[in-house]
Amino acid sequence: MRAGALLLALTAAADAPEAVYSAPAQHRLVEGVATDGATIWLSSVLDRNILVRRAGAVTNIAMPAGTLHPLGMAWDAQRKWLWVATDCPDLPGVAKCDSGALVALDRKGRLKAKLSAGPGFHPGDVSAAGGAVFVSDGLNGAVYRLNGGTLDPLIAPGVARSAQGTALTADGQHLVVADYGRGVATVDLKTKVRTLLPMADGKPLRGLDGLVRVGADYYAIHNGSSPGSLIRFRITGAQIDVTVVQRGTLLADPTQLTHDGNRLLVVADAGWPAASKPDQPPRGSNTLVAFRLP
């Protein structure tokens, strides 16, 4: 059964979200979002820019020389750095590469760190919490933890299928991983033991992309079917209890999300169809929307 079909059996209800920002047409593909509570960063993939929104004004930061296209992002409150997963997505006009890198930028866009897990490393999502930084590889399912100046594999390449968003548990002992093909899992940060967490009916929740934890709740983007959904789940024992928060045309092409303490910020219409197929219509108006947290 497709992941989308699983979600159709769930009940959805939520207040209408707030439109926050619509990217200009030249930023045809917006993938990642991060915030420190006051500034919002968005990754403009094709033109290798970071859009910076603060106090209603938007400026651009060009990716430093020697870096690739920005994808998922996370703000590191301890280091005051913006971590960016960079790679060469398979899109028209994007040159192929052997591997990508996890890079860190300061507020002015200056390169502070650039790390790779080796040949064939293609990072897509990154999370940061309490000084810990994690990056996932959507092509081979691997997940890595920043360890000094290296990336330590928590899930080795080939064990999972397509690792996407990650979120540290409240106690800091486990990492929750959304694997697009295998479902939700936890990884024990001491032993590196990976445990798959099915839904109450025993089936995995596939098709998840971005992931963030707010208290005891985990919010995730489900884009395994169109339109997409914003879902919420809690971990109960060895399973997850899932609720659909929002589903519908507003989430035409959702990808990543983060939170500023009061709101979930969701890239609601990234623009992948138009970027992948030039004959597709352009992205809609609401690039970034916000949902009030309960």
3D structure, described in words:
- The protein starts with a helix and ends with a strand.
- It has one domain: Neuraminidase, CATH 2.120.10.30.
- The longest helix has 6 residues.
- The strands form six sheets. A four-stranded antiparallel beta sheet has the order 1-24-23-22, with no helix packed on it.
- With 294 residues, the chain is mainly beta.
- It is globular and about 45 Å long.
- The chain is built from two helices and 24 strands.
- The N terminus is likely disordered.
- Helices cover 4% and strands 48% of the residues.
Could you give the order of the helices and strands? HEEEEEEEEEEEEEEEEEEEEEEEHE
Spatial shape: globular
Radius of gyration of CA atoms, rounded to a whole number: 17 Å
Number of domains: 1
Secondary structure: elements and pairs:
Layout: H1 3-8, E1 18-21, E2 30-35, E3 39-44, E4 49-54, E5 57-62, E6 69-76, E7 81-87, E8 101-105, E9 111-115, E10 123-129, E11 132-137, E12 143-147, E13 150-155, E14 163-168, E15 174-179, E16 183-188, E17 194-196, E18 208-214, E19 217-222, E20 229-236, E21 239-247, E22 257-259, E23 263-267, H2 272-276, E24 288-292
Antiparallel strand pairs: 1-24, 2-3, 3-4, 4-5, 6-7, 7-8, 8-9, 10-11, 11-12, 12-13, 14-15, 15-16, 16-17, 18-19, 19-20, 20-21, 22-23, 23-24
Condensed summary:
With 294 residues, the chain is mainly beta.
Brief descriptors of the model:
single chain; 294 residues; mainly beta; Neuraminidase; four-stranded antiparallel β-sheet; 2 helices; 48% strand; globular; disordered N terminus
